[in-house]
Amino acid sequence: MGKLSTHVLDTVHGVPAQGVALELYRLEGDSRTLLARTATNQDGRCDAPLLSGPALTRGVYELVFHAGDYFARKGVPLPEPRFVDQVVLRFGVANPDENYHVPLVVTPWTWSTYRGS
What we know:
6% of the residues lie in helices and 44% in strands. It is mainly beta. The two termini are 13 Å apart. The relative contact order is 0.29.
């Protein structure tokens, strides 16, 4: 059985991003269901997989990272409105028997992701 995990890297400070609030949603048609609400630990990761085993099913998901709030707490000067505030990553799980690692590399001005394992 597979699992879904994430982590956040703050490339402004060159550290794992501790305390980034995030939500995980499952999308089905027009429906958006909240599956998890958590925050990253001192290593920029969640303490447990967001989904694992039979809870991880084939389909479309969204991760919402509250990056703007994180940078504001760190004292980074931000414009109003923030250029990067909530980062919404919509992705698909085609094979729930595989591991899906969806990291976020972020600054107040840019972000990127990739599929890890």
